[in-house]
Amino acid sequence: MNNLTPAKTFIVSLIAGVTTGMGNGSVFGAALMCALGRARFDDWGGWGMQGLDPSTFMGFINWCMIVFGVAFTAIMLISLNRHGELEAAAAK
Questions:
Q1: Residue 55 DSSP SS3
Q2: Considering only CA atoms, which of 76, 71, 86 is closest in space to residue 9?
Q3: Cβ(30)–Cβ(86) under 8 Å?
């Protein structure tokens, strides 16, 4: 029996996925800024709700962090579920 179902591992996957994914998203943003500067972003976007506007540089980086966090959470859920299936098969 698989003890590592997505329902049982959601919180752990969310914490691990979001912290890892958002960390990687911020590194992606730093590398982008080092390589391109602000590129075609007219505004830095660091004030208030502009920080979530993807047409500003900061908003673009924040959205990258959110997307990376969601993606890494999904990866964690899939991998923990698959690990549980392998453990259950080995226990038989």
A1: coil
A2: 76
A3: no
